[in-house]
Amino acid sequence: MTSKIMKLIFFSIIAFSMIGLIFPSGFSEIYVHESGYPFSISHPSGWEALDENEWGGVSIDPDKTGRNGFYIALYCSESRGDDCGEAGADYQEIDFLKEDDKWYCDNATFAEDHLKCFNYEVIDEYAHQLDGYRAFTIVVNYSLLQDGEDPYYPDGTAGVKFDGIGTTTHVLVGNDIWVIASASDADKFDQLETEKILSSFVINNVYANEDIFYEPTWIENLINAIMSLFSWNTSTDNSSVVIETPMEETSMPEQNYDWDNPIIIEMDPCSLYEC
Length: 275
What we know:
By secondary structure, the chain is of the alpha+beta class.
């Protein structure tokens, strides 16, 4: 009976692991921007990095509609001669980010941007770090109208209102400011995916970025499942975690000293020193 159960479990594991042949694992691609201001960022496989635009920014686009994807640029740099001002406190940087982002929405035109933006609303904001630098992110709702004439996005739809959800992030490197913006149709917004892509942004060691969307292959799933069945350790983490247990403090009884009647102990000095 035990042998039959083991065979059933074994072949069930094989069948489960073979699902990976039908549903391939997800992978990401790593875009490295090789320029005087290099950066790298991971994105889902199949997205396309477009050529640098006139402002030096790069769009990473999944569908050529102009409504989904990421945009990364060095927004302000003293090394280029820009006046970036002095970095402020967290609340000041978030206020500046919100004002700047809303200004873009309010001032977008068909003539300059091939779109109009309205119904802008900040729904979340937070301070964090990216690549070891101070970063500030807002999450916004908005509506867009496109004119369908943007040469970068030939699949943009003219005359149709689209509701969107996006994020805009400022990364402070000294007094320089990097901007990372994401946009998504409201019904396609994936918060986890957006946060994973954003977290992969680096300007140091740009070639050391990792595949953040990697999932084990079907054969790796099969091996791990079989090894776990026989209680073999499948972890590749060789680090050790030490959990310190607090030591119990031994309570000492309180001593009552009679300082008015000290106890005098007379000692033979020859017991300590040679006489």
